[in-house]
Amino acid sequence: MDKHQVLRHARLYVLLDAGLLGKRDLIQVAKQIASGGADLVQYRDKISDDGRFLQNALELKKIFKHKGIPFIINDRLDIAYCIDADGVHLGQSDLPVAIARKLLGKSKIMGASAETMNQARTAQREGADYVGLGPIFHTTTKKIEKVRGLNLLRQLKGSLKIPYFAIGGINLQNLNQITQAECQRIVVGSAILNSRNPRQTCREFSRRLR
């Protein structure tokens, strides 16, 4: 896997959050996402114990590897290392990017969340391969203190050397606002996971982004 090539061409980054699935089966939803055109998938799980998290991660890795989709672990550097995931995504309260890079090595994809220009630039300086920028809109995925809005996307245009993905409350209804802000990379969670047909919703996002 050439991570730089992957990220250069990536448009639709799906956040597979176990906490958003309700009664839906994680593996079945993952299979729909895998066949729906996702370019990257991140597994986030704040509700499972370590054993279940590890088991799920191993099963998910097989599904996405079969489709050639890079599989990223949210937060849990230990799980990412244990299963040899394609990378890890870190929030502002997680381990610093520089330390995670030393532990996982240069070949793995290293992502970081950023809410400001300074945080994005710091992540880039410490070795992040991409930044998740937001929350752009209100979101139920996680507790937030402040919506960052479209201005953040406009401010960062041309100021980062690494790719950045808009995240937070993005759906098919407001997607055009993101693209009009000249951002073609997005992270989507609930709009796909809670849709009637995750596969078809993935395909529609992918089609519009391209």
Descriptive labels:
alpha/beta; TIM Barrel; eight-stranded parallel beta barrel; 10 helices; 8 strands
Would you write up a description of this structure?
With 210 residues, the protein is of the alpha/beta class. It has one domain (3-209): TIM Barrel, CATH 3.20.20. The chain has 10 helices and 8 strands. It has helices at residues 3-9, 26-34, 50-66, 77-83, 97-104, 117-126, 150-156, 175-180, 190-193, 198-209; strands at 12-17, 40-44, 71-74, 87-90, 109-114, 130-133, 164-167, 186-188. The model has no long low-confidence stretch (mean pLDDT 94).
Summarize the entry for a quick read.
The protein has one domain: Aldolase class I (TIM Barrel, Alpha-Beta Barrel). With about 210 residues, the chain is α/β, with parallel strands linked by helices.
Shape: globular
Number of domains: 1
By CATH reckoning, the class would read Alpha Beta
Return the CATH topology. TIM Barrel
Structural class of the secondary structure composition? Answer: alpha/beta
The number of E-state strands comes to 8
State the helix count: 10
Show unreliable segments. none
Alpha-carbon Rg, integer:
16 Å
Q: What would CATH call the architecture?
A: Alpha-Beta Barrel
Question: CATH-wise, what's the superfamily?
Answer: Aldolase class I
Tell me the span between the first and last alpha carbons: 22 Å
